[in-house]
């Protein structure tokens, strides 16, 4: 009986040590994907971002700098559409325009978490949920009405991350993306009002609202020097 008790005690201590080690593991990379919806603002829709919603899919790869900062490489594919007949404003000629396009976007973004995001060491004050802000630079290609094009974009947005387990992450992210073109909605809607394009006016915008799932891998260190 004494030998059995000692064996059980050793097993319990081993499991406890394993749990603590797992709780303190830290990972460098995060990979995943997501699905969501898009919106568009431009000559065929000047005010209501969600008047003609469409879809998007994302593949993402993060380098986790620390619990506050991450760098994300992302690839999006999605649809955009608009219909000027839904607007209260009308063009001088009274004509209406509509379009539908598929876009492809690749970009690099920096994310800043408001809390130390993660699970494990209490001395690091890690939180399983954290809101964050994000900004970066991207390149978007599209095809509309038989014509193709590409332009740089500046994505800006916010999101929330939640960690249901040590290596799994759930998230929701909203990004507004300014494009350096007025042809995202087609050649017919390239400067229809005759206003010369500039950085802040007469260029198209689109948004992505995406739900993501990702998984962390590659341990930063196998042994932690601090234990609770």
Structure characteristics:
single chain; elongated; 10% helix; 228 residues
How much helicity do the residues have?
A: under 10%
Give the low-confidence spans.
11-24
- The succession of helices and strands, N to C, reads HEEEEEEEE
The overall strand count is 8
Beta-strand content estimate: over 45%
- What gyration radius follows from the Cα positions, in whole Å? 24 Å
Largest sheet: 8 strands, antiparallel, barrel
Distance between the termini: 32 Å
Strand order of the largest sheet: 1-2-3-4-5-6-7-8
- The global form is elongated
| Helix count, DSSP H or I runs of 4 or more residues | 1
Mean pLDDT, nearest integer? 83
Describe this structure as you would to a colleague:
This protein has 228 residues and is mainly beta. It has 1 helix and 8 strands. An 8-stranded antiparallel β-barrel has the order 1-2-3-4-5-6-7-8. The longest helix is centred in the N-terminal third of the chain and has 22 residues. The chain is elongated and about 65 Å long. It starts with a helix and ends in a 7-residue tail after the last strand. The relative contact order is 0.21.
Describe how the helices and strands are arranged.
Layout lengths: L1 H22 L2 E16 L12 E11 L4 E15 L14 E16 L15 E16 L2 E16 L5 E12 L25 E17 L7
Antiparallel strand pairs: 1-2, 1-8, 2-3, 3-4, 4-5, 5-6, 6-7, 7-8
Give a brief rundown of this model:
Helix content is 10%, strand content 52%.
């Amino acid at each position: 009986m004494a030998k059995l008790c000692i064996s059980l005690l050793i097993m319990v201590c081993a499991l406890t040590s394993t749990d603590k080690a797992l709780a303190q593991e830290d990972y460098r990379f995060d990979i995943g994907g997501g699905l969501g919806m898009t919106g568009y603002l431009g000559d065929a829709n000047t005010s209501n971002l969600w008047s003609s919603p469409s879809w998007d899919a994302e593949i993402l790869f993060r380098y986790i700098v620390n619990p506050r900062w991450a760098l994300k490489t992302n690839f999006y594919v999605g649809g955009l559409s608009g219909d000027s007949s839904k607007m209260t404003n009308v063009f001088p000629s009274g004509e209406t325009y509509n379009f539908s396009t598929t876009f492809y976007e690749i970009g690099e973004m920096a994310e800043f978490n408001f809390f130390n995001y993660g699970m494990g060491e209490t001395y690091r004050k890690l939180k399983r949920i954290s809101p964050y802000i994000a900004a970066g630079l991207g390149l978007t290609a599209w095809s509309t009405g038989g014509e193709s094009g590409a332009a740089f974009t500046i994505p800006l947005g916010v999101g929330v991350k939640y960690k249901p387990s040590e290596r799994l992450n759930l998230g929701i992210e909203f990004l507004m993306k300014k494009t350096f073109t007025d042809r995202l909605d087609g050649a017919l809607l390239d400067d229809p009002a005759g206003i010369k394009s500039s950085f802040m006016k007469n260029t198209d915008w689109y948004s992505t609202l995406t739900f993501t799932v990702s998984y962390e891998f590659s341990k930063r260190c196998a042994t932690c020097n601090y234990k609770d």
